[in-house]
Write a structure and sequence with these properties.
68 residues; 2 helices; two-stranded parallel ribbon; 2 strands; alpha+beta
Length: 68
């Protein structure tokens, strides 16, 4: 299983996961690993995270070959 803390920001990640046929956990992070805890703020935490993850999983074409 791949635990992708960058939410597929590496454009080759979805293709690699699809090629290997392994499960993936796509995670949300505000900022970078170095600063994500400094001052996270949201207008609507659930809506913002949902939107962010929705964009992440709908963007790459190779995502289509990953079984959900």
């Amino acid at each position: 299983m791949v635990n992708d803390v960058s939410a597929l920001s590496d454009t080759e990640m979805a293709g690699l996961v699809a090629q290997r046929g392994c499960p993936i956990c796509v995670m949300h992070m505000q900022g970078t690993p170095e600063d994500m805890q400094n001052d996270p703020s949201y207008e609507d935490v659930v809506g913002d995270v949902r939107s962010s993850l929705g964009e992440a999983v709908s963007a790459p074409k190779s995502w289509e070959s990953i079984r959900v």
